[in-house]
Every structure is written in C-alpha cells, then in structure tokens.
C-alpha cells in the first residue's frame, strides 16, 4: 500500500461519499443515534485500526462519532487513510449508522500583523502550545489538536483594521450553500478572486472570514 501523499483531485476521483477532505485529512461524522451504538462502532473502529496499524482521531458523543484520518509521516492523505475510511464505512453501515459530511468544518485563525514572528511566542505561551516557524511563516499549533491552528498574515500597521479572521475549511461541494446562507444572514461576498482556493465574506460590520477548500492547491 502506497505511503505517498495523494492530491486533492486524486481523492475527489475516489468518490469517498461521506468523507470530506479538510486540510490534509479525511473527516466524517458517523450518525449513530445513541451512545450504545456509538460505543459499539467506536470499539469496532479501534479493532480495525489496530489490525491495519493506522490510527484515526475519534470523538465520541451521545449520537455521533467524529472521525479524522491523516498520515502525519506523509503530511497529508495516503492510501492508508483511504483503506481505513472504507473499512470505517463498512463498520458504520453494519451497525445501522450513517456517514455524513454535511456541515463539517475545520477552523483555523489568521492573525494579520506587521510582524507575526514577534508576537507568535506570546500566543503560544498563553495557549500553552508550540510556536513553529520556517522561512517566511509562523504557526502556533497545538500538538493535541484541541485548539485551532493560528497562522500569521503580513499586513500594514494602519488603523483601524481587522486583526483576526477565521479560515473555515469545508468540502468543495459545501461552499456555495455556505455563501448563500451567509448572504441571507446579512453578510456579503467580498471577493471570489482566489476561488476555488478561497472566498472572502464579511458580516454587516465588515468583519471578514475566508471559506477555503482543497481545490487549486495541488
């Protein structure tokens, strides 16, 4: 089984149904209906993961299980994730549960700053997470996956300006419904110049958010 990272288009061509491709990982929500079924499905997934020696992130709630698959050694999604995703779907179906990617999002926080590198250690300290940096980039990342990633976007220092903006990652087929709902709720589409990588929207007060997808990033 190949450990090479798959492209977004390769993943889309596999037609994984209930799975969403969000920031280098496959995600789904298993609708179990009750806690007992959820525990049954969770245990079966755990056994399959041990057998395949590939382990997902699992979040069990009363009527659902959120699942995320990623090959961290490859920095994205590989055939191992696809194989386990298909096995998880078989387990869920056998238990009478369903996979649902509708409404799934992964949120990152962008902080616009003239000097992100200077302030990144502060945010790492107050959140008790790691400051990661490289050539031209800085991230504040929680290795436990609890807090959203914070990244820093170079900006001017003029006032008044928005400093924080969320990046909301969604599956490509979810974008237009999100935009329509946001506009109906009083917002506006600011720019689709970089679509399908991302769309910029704003609320009635001008606070901005980006809706992001895997498309155009391979």
TrEMBL record:
Domain Glyoxalase-like, first and last residues per copy: 110-212
Any GO BP annotation: tetrahydrobiopterin biosynthetic process
Pfam families assigned to the protein according to its UniProt record, in alphabetical order: Glyoxalase_6, Pterin_4a
Keywords associated with the record: Lyase
E.C. number(s) listed in UniProt: 4.2.1.96
Keyword NADP attributed: no
Gene Ontology molecular function, alphabetical: 4-alpha-hydroxytetrahydrobiopterin dehydratase activity
Top enzyme class: lyase
Highest taxon, organism lineage: Bacteria
Keyword Lyase carried by entry: yes
Protein name, entry field: Putative pterin-4-alpha-carbinolamine dehydratase
